[in-house]
Every structure is written in structure tokens, then in C-alpha cells.
Amino acid sequence: MRDVISMSRIFFWPFSVFSVFSVVKALIRPNDMMILAARNFLAALLIALRLDAQPAPIAQRYGDAADRLIHAALADSAAWNRIAELTERFGPRFSGTPNLERAIDWVLAEMKKDGMQNVRGEPVMIPSWVRGAESAELVEPRRQNLPMLGLGGSIATPPNGITAEVLVVSSWDDLKANSARAQGKMVLFNAPFTTYGATVQYRTNGAVEAAKAGAVASLIRSVGPYSMRTPHTGGTRYDTTVRRIPHAAITTEDADMLARMQARGEKILVRLTMSAQMLPDAPSRNVIGEIVGREKPDEVVVMGGHIDSWDVGRGAMDDAGGVVVAWEAVRLMHKLGLRPRRTIRVVGWTNEENGLRGGNAYRDAHRAELNRHVAAIESDGGVFKPAGFGFTGSDAGFAIARQVGSLLERIGAGAITRGGGGADIGPIMQLGVPGLGLNVDGTRYFWYHHTEADTVDKLDPHDVALCVATMAVMSYVLADMEETLGRNSP
Amino acid sequence: MRDVISMSRIFFWPFSVFSVFSVVKALIRPNDMMILAARNFLAALLIALRLDAQPAPIAQRYGDAADRLIHAALADSAAWNRIAELTERFGPRFSGTPNLERAIDWVLAEMKKDGMQNVRGEPVMIPSWVRGAESAELVEPRRQNLPMLGLGGSIATPPNGITAEVLVVSSWDDLKANSARAQGKMVLFNAPFTTYGATVQYRTNGAVEAAKAGAVASLIRSVGPYSMRTPHTGGTRYDTTVRRIPHAAITTEDADMLARMQARGEKILVRLTMSAQMLPDAPSRNVIGEIVGREKPDEVVVMGGHIDSWDVGRGAMDDAGGVVVAWEAVRLMHKLGLRPRRTIRVVGWTNEENGLRGGNAYRDAHRAELNRHVAAIESDGGVFKPAGFGFTGSDAGFAIARQVGSLLERIGAGAITRGGGGADIGPIMQLGVPGLGLNVDGTRYFWYHHTEADTVDKLDPHDVALCVATMAVMSYVLADMEETLGRNSP
């Protein structure tokens, strides 16, 4: 798009020179041809004036900046290397753990080394759920260890565990139809993965619904479309009106096995042992570093991901990648001397996974300046090959975001779609800040989500670099352009 | 091929009737046309006689039987269900464990129920290596559990484990170049997966080579092209001339991480704890069931896989599938009343994985009748979508096997290639028995090989049914045809 416009400008000048000559000639010795030529020139002049009265299209104004950012992002594997170092130096960064706070210290120190401005940690008190020792064992019809992960927030079992007969159900309806048989049992929700949204409800609400039916514990089939005997953790909830029972995930392989055992008429006995506990809230921080705007430093594009992770794997995809690509995007602006009109604030929110305290604390700490937050951008879907952004905001804002998106078409990341944002920016989006969420190829995201397999090798260095480029171009243009995306209707 | 030949037979008869008439007429009142026609008839008769002097092509003789076997195999998911039941009822079937012997008892009982003949377990003494409790922990630069599997046959560490600095090498050459630094260290062989053959050498010989360089323990990057933090076990060996050191596999993810830590100059300390021990040999059995030949019961096509597995996962692909598809193939012959001229003997060899005692014991127990073994067929590459067979034998035998293969082209499993067989039939192939190994789509075989992820869900019921059909057609025709594949040169 940008190239076409440049070409038309180049061709405009010979035409204009010829036309000025026509006007002068017409003043001296007019004829019809001259009058026609002069009229054409005046019309062209009007068009030119109209173009100049409004800013040039975004794609035209920011083509060069976009090229420079993209070129710099794709020049090396710096972002991938940084994800590797962050995730391998500190491991999983679970809320309430020293790993998380050490990782935050390191990010702050590295941001300073990078020359980022206003680098700081903003205090947040976060929940501290501790998994402790845990296991599930098939006792009948034969003994076998069942790889498992307790679900975040679950209570413990008694020290010797709970040994109970298992009732396998495939859905809420199936539980309802068999609720008379659930009393005193361990209910296994074996709902095959369809979409995350449709399947995660058994993780979120399984303990409540199983307890309502009289179950003593509940298990779920891990929420994911593919498994190599891989349990997935994730948050769960209780209901104040219902007795709390322990809740854990087993692998899809073992869930299917138990379902077949039940179908074959075999009695299934499982012993579940969990020592999970909720400790007092612990201090943590939202990690922040900025490039301060050259003209409107008080206006802010906030951009990032969450610095915490679950307590398994290394949280590379979820969401070290999100923090690092935002951070790298701004590092490149510093390096290239591309200082935007407004401030871009990189944030690594804390405690997204089991509390969203970081996102809420950011809203509370920055409430007074949220009307000067022109956009919020989050990457929390894995830094796989980027496709563009999902946008939540006004129609006018959407049209502008699409113009910015056109700058990303050259790397296949220009698709701006309706709807999107992110958990951490949700609280400020609700207060009117337009939100964008990075969209990527999500084919394998739920293979690794909340598992031991979420490690940096699952990310491709070139894809990660493309994500840096995509975040850089979007944030730079939103922070620099004279227009804004407007406000969301709260 | 079969259809074309049938058509030519049909058209042959009107021509022949006409020609007999010509001969008779020529005898009564000869003329040139009649003489020509009579000559044509005699020539055709010669061709017909020559055809009848040799058997019709295999593809022609066995087209109907192949169709019936294929149709029966593809009619349901019986084979997949049987793999599920075998693997889930008994779990992994490791040599020396009650699981294996219970599974053998069950297979024998089921074979009898199926109406198989001469069902029996033939005694074999097998090694009994016991893994025991084991773990690997990264101690420096930070603490983290390293998912691991000790390698079959490894010795234990002292009870408190071995804590040592890690030296990461990428190859034998890299170890050689850094052997001065290996003294007292734990060597990690981090050789990326290329082919199984090229990579498995570090599992097989790593402990010996590391010990030669003075290492106190050795680790390998798991042998596989893809990982979800999945350690792979497998056999290893020692050398009587070198000190034995413990040998274990960690995940590809963690091997890469340790390599990057070393590249970043970090000191890596790992604590390896293994309590493996070798118990006295234990009694086991090769599982056998037959369909006895109708004409030459003493001549045998032997066919199967191995009934044992490693001690992790459920050994569905490796190799419950191999045993079950051979068994199902013969069950279908019984069911269809397709009794071949010779005996087909289904064998589930024991202890393929860590000793090959079953294959060797079969050779020893059947040495006297091996010259009447017309073929040996093994499935031990996973029962994924079948492609055909690899054949080891004479040129004449290969040509015949290809003719049988043509019967499998209709299900895409007709490719007969040079070379192939199987570990269990290796000992009898060495004594002259022509060998065939089922070839399948091996794309994901080494994803699951010797891991917790080797479970029945990795197999597709239709693919498994195609494997049954492929084994059934090949074994039936080899057992029934008048020809034989000849002998291998021992």
C-alpha cells in the first residue's frame, strides 16, 4: 500500500510543472486547451490541498518506521534467547514463590541495562496457593500411578488421601442423569476437548457440581486437544453454598481408560492424595519499563503480558513470551531512536494465572490516568506465528486499527478482527481503554497450556521475532499518530 | 490385476467353441480358412495347457480370499478394542513382573475362546531388571526436578544419589575433544534426534564411553524427535573392561536447557538417584496359538509380535498391537473358515525389550522344525497405517512376496521392499527362514517409543484394522500357496 502512494507522488510533479506552465500561458494568450489544462491544474491543486488539510494515511506516514522496526526485529533471535534465559534461569514463576520475585528482579535490572525509562516494580499483594505433594493411584481393577495435577485453589485431601470408587461422566447432563450414583464417589468429568471455553467449565466448576451430587472428590480429563500423558493444571473455584472437595486433573489417556473400564463393567477405585494449602497473601510486583513520549508523555499505550506462570513447566509460551515480545519491541525503538509522541509502557503483570491481582492493581494504581491511556495491548496467546490483533473499541477506532494493521500485511500479521484483548488489560478496558490482543497461530497452544511441556523449545525463533515486529509496529503507531482510537463504551 | 485375468478367461470360451468346430470341419472338408482356424485353436490349446501346467498367478488365485479377509478385518474395531483391553487390563508388561504373566494367562484363555488350536505358553527364563525409585534434580544454578527414566540394565547410584557437575557434549567427538574435563563429572550426551539408529547409540553405549573418560554417571537426551517433557527409556549395556556407572535419560527440553546453561557459562550441578537392581531370572512364556494347516500341518508360517513391553506407559504400540493384529488375523481365518494348506502359528514372544530371550528360546525349542518354517512375519513398528512389508530372503522369494503384496494394493499396503524382519524372528531368520516385517507409517512411532505416552489412543481403529487385513492376507497366502519363498542363505 505504501509503495503505491509513493509512486503517485512521484508522478504528480511532472504533471504539476506542466500545469503551472499551462496557467501562465493561459494568462498571456488564452485558448480552449489552455483553459482546460488550467482547470485541471486547479482541480488537482484542490485535491492536494484537501490531502494536506488532513494527515496522510497512516500506512503512508509510518511505512518507513514499520520497515525499520520489522527489519530490526527479524535481524536476530534476541527475543527467543531472552525467553529462554528468563524461563530457564528462574523456572516457573508461580504466584507466591521466590522464583517469581527473582525473575521480576532480573527483568527490572535488564530493562535498566536496555536503557528503558521509569523502570519499576509496582506493589501487588497476591494469593499464594501451594500444591505440595500430590498423587493419584488407580487401586482397582489394578494398581497404576495416574499422572495428575491438582487444580489451582483446590483444598487438600486428608493426609492419607481419599480412596473412593470412581463414577465417570461425560458432561453435566450425564452427571445429572447419574447423580443418584454419585453419592460418596469420586466423579471424573471426561468431557472431550472441543473448544477451551466449552471444556474448561469442568475444571472451573467441576468440584462444585460434583459436591452438589454428593461426591467426595472430583477429577477432570485434562483440558487439551492432544496429550503425551500430560496433565494440565489451571484454576478452579468453590461456591460458598456447597461443601469443598478436592479437585484434580488426570491425563486424557487415563480418563479414557477409566471410561472404558466403566463401560466394561469393571469397578474402579482411585486413591487421591493432595496436600495443597492456601498461604497468606504475598507481596509481588507488576514489572514496568517505558519509552517516554516526546510530545505527550502523559498519554500512554500500555502493552505487555503476565510475568507469572503456573507452577509447572517453565511458562515460556504462557506467558514469558508475551512479556518479552512487548519488552523487545520497546527496546528496539530505543535502539533505533524511534521515540513516539506518547509514552509506551511495557508491563509484566503479576498473578494473572490464579488471581488477576496484577491487572486489577494496575487499574487501581493508574485509575487517575486511565483517560490518558490511548490503548492497551496484550500478548497472552503464545508467541507463535502472528496473524494480527483482535480489537475491542469503537467503530472509528477499529477503522484506525485496521489502517495500522495494513503496515503489518508485509509480514502476514495485518488481520485486525473484532473482539479481543487480554485478561490483564480487561480491568482497564472495562473503564474505557481500547484493547488489542495479539492473535497468533494457536494450533498447538492448548497442547502445552498449563503443563510441564510449556518450555521455550515449543517456540520458533522466527515466529517470536515476527511477534516482536507486530507488537512494535502496532504500539509505535498508536503511540505516535495524531489520531487516537477513541474510548470504549464502559 | 485379478479382474483383468477373469475377463480373459470368460472371452476364451466362445473362441474355443468356435475353434473346435473349425477343427472338426477341417477334418471333414478342409480349406485354407479352416486350416488357419484349426492352427489357431491348437496354438491356443498349447497356451492353455502351459497355463495349466503351472499354477495361476497368486493374485488370481487368492483375490477372493484376500477380499474376504480384508472385508472382515475392516468390519469393526475388534482389534483396537482388544489392544485397549490387553493394555488397560494389565498395564505395562515388563519382563519379570506379574503384569506380564497375567497378560499372558489372559491371552492364552482368550485364544482358546476364539477357537485357536494348540494354544500354549512355551517356557522361557527371562531377566528381571527392576527400576525402583529414581529421580534427577537440578541443584545448580537453581533447583528443579528433571523428569527422567533410568535406562534398562543400569546399575543404581549409592542410596543418597550422585551429585556431580554436568558436562554437556553433543557427540562422541565432542566427548573426545572435552575428555579432559569429564573426570568426576556427570556427562550428558545431548545428541539431537536424526534417525533412531544414529541416536540410540548414546543410549546403548553412553555409560561405557562416559566411564572411559572418567565420568561418575551419564545422562542422555531422550531418543525421540518430539517431546512434551517426555523421557524415553530403553536398554543399555556395559563393557566388562570399564567401570559401570549409572545411566539415565532426561527430556529433550531439559537436555537443551542444560546445554544452554553451559553455553551461558553457568555451573550445572545435578543429583541423580537410582535404586535399580537386577533380580534373578524369572520364568515367563512365549504365547502361542495356531490355525493348523489342512494339508501340510507340519509346515509353518510363524507370525506375531512381542507380548512384553517396557515398564512405562502401557506398551500399546510397542508391541501389544503387533501381537493383537497377528492374533486377529488368524481369528478371522477361523471365523471365515479359511483354513490354509500349512499351519499359521501366532506367537507373542516374551522379553523382546530387554533380553530377546523369547526370540532365542523359540529358535532353540523349534530348531528341529525350522526347515519347515516357510516364513516368519513380525509386526513391531506400531500398528499405524500399513504400507506393506520389508522382506529378507532370496530373489525368487522376493518376487513371490511381491505377488502376494499385489493383493494388498487395494488397501494401500502392497509395497514389498527389500530388507526387513523383526527382532524376535531374527534368530530364526539367521537359520534360513525368510522374514517379513510389517511396514507402517512411522511418523509418530518415536514420539511414543518407550514412554508413558505409549497408550492405545495413539492408534487409530481403522489403521489397526488395516494392519490386521495386511497381516491376514500375507500370512494366509504364504501358508496356502503351493510355492514357497525358499530359504535365506544363513
CATH topology of the largest domain in chain A: Aminopeptidase
Query: How many domains, in number, for the residues of chain A?
Result: 3
Order of strands, main sheet of chain A, comes to: 1-10-12-11-13-16-14-15
Straight-line N-to-C gap of chain A: 34 Å
CATH H-tier superfamily of the largest domain in chain A: Zn peptidases
Structural class of chain A: alpha/beta
Amount of helix of chain A? 40-55%
Number of helices of chain A: 15
Number of strands of chain A: 16
Largest interface: A-B, 30 and 30 residues
User: Sheet with the most strands of chain A?
Assistant: 8 strands, mixed
**Average pLDDT number of chain A:** 92
CATH architecture of the largest domain in chain A: 3-Layer(aba) Sandwich
Plain-language structure description:
2 copies of one chain form a homodimer. Chain A has 490 residues and is α/β, with parallel strands linked by helices. Chain A folds into 3 domains: 2-54; 60-126 and 281-480, Zn peptidases (Aminopeptidase, 3-Layer(aba) Sandwich); 132-275, Glucose Oxidase, domain 1, CATH 3.50.30.30. Chain A is 40% helix and 23% strand. Chain A has helices at 2-28, 32-53, 58-61, 63-73, 78-90, 98-113, 172-177, 196-212, 252-263, 316-336, 357-365, 395-406, 426-429, 445-448, 461-480, and strands spanning 117-130, 134-140, 144-146, 148-150, 162-169, 186-189, 217-221, 247-250, 269-274, 277-291, 296-306, 342-349, 373-378, 386-392, 415-418, 435-440. Chain A has an 8-stranded mixed beta sheet with strand order 1-10-12-11-13-16-14-15, sandwiched between helices. The first copy, chain A, has an 8-stranded mixed beta sheet with strand order 3-2-9-5-6-7-8-4, sandwiched between helices. In chain A, helix 1 (2-28) packs across helix 2 (32-53), helix 4 packs antiparallel against helix 15 (461-480) and helix 5 crosses helix 10. The radius of gyration of chain A is 28 Å and the shape is elongated. Mean pLDDT of chain A is 92; it is low at 1-23. Chain A binds chain B through residues 84-85, 88-91, 99, 141-142, 144, 147, 227-230, 252-253, 256-257, 260-261, 264, 313, 447-448, 451-453, 455, 457, and chain B through 84-85, 88-91, 99, 141-142, 144, 147, 227-230, 252-253, 256-257, 260-261, 264, 313, 447-448, 451-453, 455, 457.
